[in-house]
Amino acid sequence: MKIIIPLVFAVLLSGCITGSSVKEILYVDSNDIVSIVYTGSFTDGAVFDSGVINVTMGKGQVISGFEKAVLGMALNEEKTVKILSNDAYGSIDSNLIFSMPVDVLTENNIVPETGMMLQLESGAKALIRDVNETDVLLDFNHPLAGQDLVFKLRVVSIKKS
Known about the structure:
elongated; Chitinase A, domain 3; Thrombin, subunit H; 3 helices; 35% strand; 2 domains; alpha+beta; 14% helix
């Protein structure tokens, strides 16, 4: 060890390594505008989304676990992270699941089916969880609520603020 340190200093002083040949490594910080190539999957490996997203860090534009994973990454760095549901879309809120008479839908020419997504005039979206002769069970939770998620991430650009 005693020989290696003086050797490194000798090489630096000899001009073999210059400051101009060392590239600055960029890391993601809060307020940076970052482009990320991602693939989102469930813990069983089934992919639910992929693409490129541009995010201003620290602005709440993505789920908190995604942002925490990207902060501190270097330009062109790749990693895979598991994000627990509480850092993703939260747990399932039973207050957002309720029943309504099936007639409300059929009177509006909607034939409800289990698994169907509805969008109300207010813009709210609901998943039909169950249908019987009299009632429809609607779930207004985010479709990924209650799910642990896995993201493969690669930072492809960083614009410093």
